[in-house]
Amino acid sequence: MSDLVTRLLEGLPAEAVLTDTDVLASYAHDMASFCPAGAPAVLVLPREREQVQHVLRVASELRVPVVPQGARSGLSGAANAVDGCVLLSLVRMNRIVNIDPVNRIAVVEPGVVNADLSKAVAGHGLAYPPDPSSWEQCTIGGNIGTGAGGLCCVKYGVTAEYVLGLDVVLADGRLLSTGRSTAKGVAGYDLTRLFVGSEGTLGVVVRAVVALRPAPPPQLVLAAEFGSAAAAGDAVCRIMAAGHTPSLLELMDRTSVRAVNRLLKMGLPESTEALLLAGFDTPEPGAELAAVGELCRAAGATEVVPAEDTAESEMLLAARRAGLSALEAVKGTTMIDDVCVPRARLAELLDGVARIADRHRLTIGVIAHAGDGNTHPTVCFDATDPDESRRARESFDAIMALGLQLGGTITGEHGVGVLKREWLARELGPDSLEVQRGIKAVFDPLGILNPGKVF
Ligand SMILES: Cc1cc2nc3c(=O)[nH]c(=O)nc-3n(C[C@H](O)[C@H](O)[C@H](O)COP(=O)(O)OP(=O)(O)OC[C@H]3O[C@@H](n4cnc5c(N)ncnc54)[C@H](O)[C@@H]3O)c2cc1C
Q1: Is the CB of 145 within 6 Å of ligand 1?
Q2: What atom of ligand 1 comes closest to residue 78's alpha carbon?
Q3: Same domain, 240 and 202
Q4: Which pTM was predicted?
Q5: What is the 76 CA–ligand 1 centroid distance (Å)?
Q6: Ligand 1 centroid, distance to 150 Cα (angstroms)
Q7: 30, 64, 89 — which closes off a domain?
Q8: How far apart are CA 193 and CA 272, in angstroms?
Q9: Distances in Å between the alpha carbon of 225 and those of 42, 254, 278, 296, 365?
Q10: Residue at 435 is within a domain
Q11: CB of 149 sitting under 6 A from ligand 1
Q12: 181-219 b/e with 16+ CB inside 10 Å = b?
């Protein structure tokens, strides 16, 4: 038994410390393609905060890297193992500690699955809005690690806007409490916000106080078909400029629509170049749906079909949520971009992606949180074909270059991880990068926390 494992077992039960090579291999990576994963030394599955502290103390002493993990549904390699690391999976710390309807907060452990929190707070007439499409799988800790977004973020905002306070185990094992559980609070620097989206490079979240909202009425969704993705982009601009606040505004291009039909046998309209879904969760959404339908027609929609009821609306949402999995089935492997541009440039981005697909002779399906300008151009390719794999990587990079050129960012919600490290430097520039590295050094002077990620 290695010194590392012996030391870990001093503060953890044997069932929480795993070294079986098959198990380690199955935990070594998240869902991103083209991201190297190293060989971990050990997998630790703690149930208590003190056990996490013990892991970090041992790791600091022995100078062993630690990779925090949630459900490993990430799409940037941020949860991938590095050689000789401790994989620190937080999935067993999955208690909802408290739901407080008066203060509209919940206190949760990091391994709570997003959908489980949503269901639990719904029983109190409340909602936790950030809703990644992976919500039945991903954890709140992972959502905090990546700064996750989702479908209803166009109205309600992203994870960062809902994290009020955190308990974080630092690299040396100390416990840091940040933020607050009050409605307001501005004492000191906002360390809570700093941890959101830090991808496990600054500390390990062991508890979070998250804000809740009163549960809105069920939403009604309208589907509009367009003859071009750019016309759908134009409709998004018209809807937002007219002052509407949809509870979702999502786009699927023809490739995605067809892929979803194949996967779910849904009967979505296959002749459309782009399908736009607009939802409203106000008590009487009829007038808004009608107005948005008119705006879609003015932008060139060939068909506008409001869902008849909430069940039909849910079906359309299920189709949208299945988009990434459906595209994966097209050729077996995908590279999922996450470029976010100002809404006014959405049409240019969509046209540009189509040109990139042609130039590289590839299928690239686009699904998008269109109301946020956040697109997921998804390169479908056969990973066993080296030439196609090379073209896939090149097209993926070309899309990020286009996003930056249009005034956007390389990642709206999936994070940098391993996949976009070199692109981060391009987006931030040297001064910002240096400041960020300085912050990392303050929290992690030995460089043991998720090394090789982000920077
Ligand atoms: C089909 C599909 C659809 C998706 N849709 C969306 C979407 O709509 N919106 C979106 O934003 N993302 C989406 N994603 C990506 C992914 O689900 C999110 O990034 C999610 O937040 C990751 O959560 P996780 O629990 O799987 O975390 P992991 O992938 O395990 O980890 C993600 C990052 O968080 C860090 N981390 C995990 N737990 C902790 C902790 N306790 N303390 C510190 N750091 C920690 C890890 O080190 C890593 O850097 C999708 C993924 C899939 C497969």
Answers
A1: yes
A2: 49
A3: no
A4: 0.96
A5: 9
A6: 11
A7: 89
A8: 41
A9: 51, 10, 12, 9, 16
A10: no
A11: yes
A12: eeeeeeeeeebbbebbbbbbbbbbbbbbbbbbeebbeeb
**Domain identity same for 137 and 196:** yes
Given a cut of 90, whether residue 105 has pLDDT beyond it is yes
- pLDDT tens by residue, 322-371: 999 999 999 999 999 999 999 999 999 999 999 999 999 999 999 999 99
CATH number at residue 157: 3.30.465.10
Q: What is the CATH number of the domain that holds 348?
A: 3.40.462.10
Q: What is the CATH number of the domain that holds 63?
A: 3.30.43.10
CA of 142 to the centre of ligand 1 (A): 4
Note whether 227 and 371 are same-domain residues.
yes
Q: Are residues 241 and 321 in the same domain?
A: yes
Residues linked to residue 44 through DSSP beta bridges, in sequence order: 17, 88
Q: Which domain holds residue 71?
A: 2-89
Residue nearest to atom 32 of ligand 1 (CA): 142
What is the pLDDT, as a whole number, of residue 411? 98
**For the chain, what's the residue count?**
455
Q: Which of 39, 68, 89 represents a domain boundary (last residue)?
A: 89
Domain check: are 258 and 396 in the same one? yes
75 in contact with ligand 1, CB cutoff 6 A: yes
At 192-245, the pLDDT tens digits run 999 999 999 999 999 999 999 999 999 999 999 999 988 999 999 999 999 999
Shortest CA distance to 415 belongs to which of 77, 68, 33?
A: 77
The answer to whether 90 and 68 have CB atoms below 8 angstroms apart is yes
Give, for ligand 1, the residue of 51, 55, 75 to mutate: max count of ligand atoms closer than 8 Å to Cβ.
Answer: 75
pLDDT at 104: 97
